[in-house]
Amino acid sequence: MPNRTVFFVSDQTGVTAETMGHSLLTQFAGLKLSTVTLPFIASREKAIEARERINAATVADGAQSIVFSTLIQEEWRVEVQAANAVFLDFFDAFIGQLEAAFGVKSSHAAGRAHGMANAEGYAARINATNFALSNDDGAQTRDFGKADVILVGVSRSGKTPTCLYLALHYGIHAANYPLTEEDLETGRLPAVLAPLRAKLYGLTIEPDRLQQIRHERRPNSKYASANQVAFEVREARALFERLGIPYIDTTHCSVEEIGSRVVHESGIGRRTVA
Amino acid sequence: MPNRTVFFVSDQTGVTAETMGHSLLTQFAGLKLSTVTLPFIASREKAIEARERINAATVADGAQSIVFSTLIQEEWRVEVQAANAVFLDFFDAFIGQLEAAFGVKSSHAAGRAHGMANAEGYAARINATNFALSNDDGAQTRDFGKADVILVGVSRSGKTPTCLYLALHYGIHAANYPLTEEDLETGRLPAVLAPLRAKLYGLTIEPDRLQQIRHERRPNSKYASANQVAFEVREARALFERLGIPYIDTTHCSVEEIGSRVVHESGIGRRTVA
Questions:
Q1: Which of A64, B102, B212, B266 has its CA 20 to 30 A from that of A142?
Q2: How far apart are CA A139 and CA A122, in angstroms?
Q3: Domain coordinates of chain A in residue numbers?
């Protein structure tokens, strides 16, 4: 099977073209693909340069390149579209239906889906990121009352990356608190969390996976031992069940999946959209 | 103009549907839209529930709802598609062209574009996030040699959120180092950075905007004063120019835009894809 080159071409960051392309390519397993992102194609010269790179890949592969395009400007789009390639035009596919539905013409302005078009939403995301950093790992809890959600779980269950993702992607103020052995031995919520129960969302994880993660961090420690991990995971889950705290098993979930579930199941709603 | 409700419907996180929808909606300014994400629609019951919510919005708005769908499973898709709404089917629009290009049928398996299908890539993103957290703000520099890129700039120029985004989205190991007044007065790179010049990427920002950001943080401080900000910004930029360090003005850029430029202009290449 020949290699195929897949291009993500955009007049902006390329994030939308990549998201769309990767999502579709998950439907085709087992192909030999190389991917190239060509962002900021916003001049005739850049469009021609892009076309030449695409043509070169088609020749080198002996098979037409695939182009996922979110180019809006007609004049640059036609230059790229002239390449010897399969051209998948994101805007072309949908904009007509949307114009008909809304009864207005689209602006055809270079899309800044990932820009600062919505400056307020953007500032909210940056503020939320700073909030996540200052309210990470239970070191500082005085602002927990201002959190939209507080993730709780044992060490290395995925709290920090999830909080950062919730902040950067959704603009949500997410704090997190690690349940320690001492907390779990009492069988009660730590005092600082007790009045905030409605904001809590639990993360749990399969003991085998947790042991592996902790072992990479501190090989052959008590922290990474089978007994310790089994105890912590069991007690944390029991605590969530007993107090009716919603929780999710993160073992087979990405931060996007955990984040999406937390947002939609905790009912906090999102602040903004990345 | 009546309000219109826009739905993002997915059998997974909804991230692709939201990205696609928001990207298209940027082309229609001035409309009154409310948005609702319905993720994890992965059973007949959930599909029917989604259809009912969509129909209810169409009735309430007195105008057809817009549905951006990335549903793959035919059986749930038809349930939702039966709603009284404008149905934009992401997979339907492109999968045929891709099947023709690749000469194979798609798997029609529920897409985990944002799942852990690529477990190795996912672990790389989490490791990169931990790296960004441990190598933030110059507090600890002994692992700077392992960084793919080191962002440098004055305090509050956008280094930390950009590093976290580079990690979470691209799996890139990004460190950052704040250029302080003392550093800038010497007119030279801090000693720790001197041998790592090839990894450096500068962030700069317009003084007015920086003053505003710092003022929110420490009102009426020297740190937020016009003189101080003007000095730091001028000297940082002069340093980048003198040493040939590539840099970007972050004033009007989102983390996605800064991140995309850093990746594509520094030539570090990406590790993986979110």
A1: B212
A2: 27
A3: 4-102, 119-266
